[in-house]
Amino acid sequence: MIRNNKIRILLAKAGLDGHDRGVKVIARALRDEGMEVIYTGLRQTVNTIVISAVQEDVDVVAVSILSGAHMTLLPQIWKGLKKYGRQDILLTGGGIIPPQDQARLKKMGIGRMFGPGDSIYHIVRYIRDSVSK
Amino acid sequence: MKKQIQKILYTPQDTRYLNYSTDLANPGEFPFTRGIYPTMYSGKPWTFREFSGFGLAHDTNQRFRFLLESGQTGLSVAFDLPTLMGYDSDHPKSSGEVGLGGVAIDSLEDMEELFRGIPLAKVSTSMTINAPAAIIFAMYLACAKKQKSKIRDLNGTLQNDILKEYIAQKEWIFPPKPSLRLIVDTVRFATRHVPKWNTISISGYHIREAGSTAVQELAFTLANGFTYVEEVLKTSLSIDQFAPRLSFFFNAHQNFFEEVAKFRAAKRIWAKKMRYTYKAKDPKSWRLRFHVQTAGCSLRAQQPENNIVRTAYEALSAVLGGTQSLHTNGYDEPLCLPTDESAQIALRTQQILAHELGITEAVDPLGGSYYIEHLTNQMEKQAEDYFKKIRSMGGVLKGIEENFFQHEIANASYVYQKEVEEKKRIIVGVNEYLTEKELWNVPIFKIDPKRENEQKTRLKHLKRKRNNSKVLKTLAQLRRKAETRENLMPYILESVEAYATLGEIVESLKEVFGEYQEPASAL
Predict the structure, then answer these.
(1) Is this prediction's ipTM beyond 0.90?
(2) Which of A20, B128, B199, B286 has a 20 to 30 Å separation from B163 between CA atoms?
(3) CATH number of B274's domain
């Protein structure tokens, strides 16, 4: 496969919530920034997200969760990526994630979680800094 | 580029076409722009209705009893996401979500536990449930019957508004047509058997939260309302039989005067449409009764205490717009579910408004302001433009199929975010007035993750002890009836009373109705 040097990112909605305002804004903004964005649509299972990430050979998986199930779903996705030997992929995301949970996710090796009020500028910079290509 | 000059002064010139008796009128008089009742808050303030629900039925029952003992007469139930989506707690998709954002209800057994010791004939219960609303309503009725309450006496509200789910909140199960049929079935059933029940709470709240503008919230919500009216009118019911039991639910966002104008315009538009287009004769059908919640999406995780101030101003706009009831958000909600402390501050915010500011002393104190009346007219006009557009498209269902609403909202939310990024819109503590170091001293409310397994065990026991052949029989009957045009409520009630679970009933109906697939959409 011929790859250009664009950052490839899988945007995923995990869990049962239907709040897609944030993920849609981010998708558009990251495209405007010249990244290749794949959006999964609502209510994807952990398995689908992991397999899509591996198959699409992305650099980043960004998960949007506003349901409160992040401490169940994010570690499962991280474990799934490990199974495929792909923990080189940056796992990040956003939603309603309490700071204590963010710290616990960070300890597991999962990337930063963004929340209400965080700017697109910071998200873009974080992704660019974390994925050097 | 042409620079638009912002108008900053409003004078009698801006309201010169306004006719007091036909456009405003006294409160309590058609078209109700100034309020749907003559005295509004002077006798008694609006209802403080705070929404709650978490964990298992038993946990929420404890909270309800505490609220009732503290003098509250109305309950408002939040359900967890699996319940909202029609999945039982043991479904693989429910993993990690049981009892999290609300209470988990799998069967009549849970509903009985939820209201144990609470006489349903004596309280009013608001239930925020949409795609499986008919089933949850049936569970509530069955629960009341078991308590020996007469269902004729029951008082409450079912959100039951599926159109805004396709447009904004996206918690759907079935495709639009069978979903509308279920709504019409509940309206017909309640009109006959539960006459004091508010059958649909037509909601703009979620449309606004998804990123719409104020005008879009107003226009799309009322357009959904007209759609429900037209669907029910296709049955044997006449407008004045069911319209008085329709109610509304709006968002109170930050642009203060625009919000006040939005509420006032909503009342006027609805009254005129009900009277002149749908030929309602009963003034109760003309009155737009509404509930308001302050804007969750306006709250920020940065310097979260500032959210108390935001919520208070938003609440003020709802009261000056004439709301019947109000929910104020907890300041910690961009971070977690509200703690007891933040929920109490939210309630206190309403109490301060009602008792300390003197705003209940005159009805519609902003009425007659050149600016407010101008904005109200403008809101009405812009909403009318949307109605025309929607009609020419072939109606709300067509608009959903063609992604019209979804695109309008996504565009508006993108524009909003860009304005924040570019500092054309200042958000205190977010893009201006930042503090050196964020102080994370907000306490966090947590649900015990063990609750999920407890609920799964409960469900397992239920499935063992109930009469399973009766369950299967009622579900088979329900499937058969779903293929006819008969009202499904009595059959759903039978299944529920046999202790069929929410998930089992939903799966049975899916076999006939299918599942909704969001139209493939460009982002």
Answers:
(1) no
(2) B286
(3) 3.20.20.240
